[in-house]
Amino acid sequence: HYFKQINLRAPMIRCCVRQAVSACSRLHRPFPARTYYASEKGEDLKFDILEGSLKHVHNHGWTETALRHAIKELDLSEASIKMFKLGGAEIALHYDQSLNDQLEDMMAQQKDDLAPDAEPVPIADFLQDAIKTSLELQLPYYDRWAEALALCIDPNVAPKATSQFAHLIDDIWFYAGDKSTDFNWYTRRATVAAVYGLTELFMLQDTSPGYSETWAFLNRRVTDLAALGENRVELEKQLESAGDLMKATFIIARNMLGQK
Questions:
Q1: Most confident of 59-63, 188-192, 225-229
Q2: Whole-angstrom Cα distance, residue 173 to residue 189?
Q3: Which pTM does this prediction carry?
Q4: Which tens digits make up the pLDDT trace of 222-242?
């Protein structure tokens, strides 16, 4: 890996690529400061409850039950649960944002560590390693991953999840060195969003040791992406197919959970 691994615990929530592509098209740097549930994490009650809820996710999932356990452990009023309008999904959203922030820190540090006269990491290699690193960070919660994905079906959760995903994709391209402002800005982010989403779908069903088949799949998709270059027609075809395929993610997640 180009990025130094750090110990993170986070679910990965991804919505349909078409939604993410739309969100990407509305993003423009510089971004405002990162969004937490309040400006001071250590003193923010909601943040502390979400942090405390995570250790209960393995047993109770991304649910209000996990939130209630944290509230009880913090010796807070049961009425505190009313702060969480999206219920347990807020735990997943919170940690998804935390993962994205941590990945951005890692990419920024890599950029800072690069000597002025050093050759930059090839963009294809950078993209592949960034996607792989991001996906690997969620592995501690693999037993609840399908449940996290299924939450994205909720129309109340989808906008926030999609926005976070769009920012993640833009961060990856930004640190990869992309400064385009024309059609290429849109298509590059859209196609990487598709590659990310399809790889995540593949990983959901992967039983190979160390997810070796997933990483081989990712390598092929990044290679395909590089081969497409700036061919607008072919890029749009790829996006159309990817959008349809990504819808299968949520069907698979629901089937794994026995939902209808």
A1: 59-63
A2: 7
A3: 0.76
A4: 988 776 655 544 545 555 544
Find, among 98, 103, 94, the residue nearest to 5 by Cα: 103
C-alpha closest to that of 158 among 6, 5, 15, 3: 15
User: Would you give the distance in Å from CA 143 to the centre of its chain?
Assistant: 17
Whole-angstrom distance, CA of residue 95 vs CA of residue 140: 12
> Tokens 């919505």 map to which residue?
15
Q: How far apart are CA 104 and CA 135, in angstroms?
A: 14
pLDDT tens digits for range 136-187: 998 888 889 889 888 988 899 999 998 999 999 999 988 988 766 655 667 7
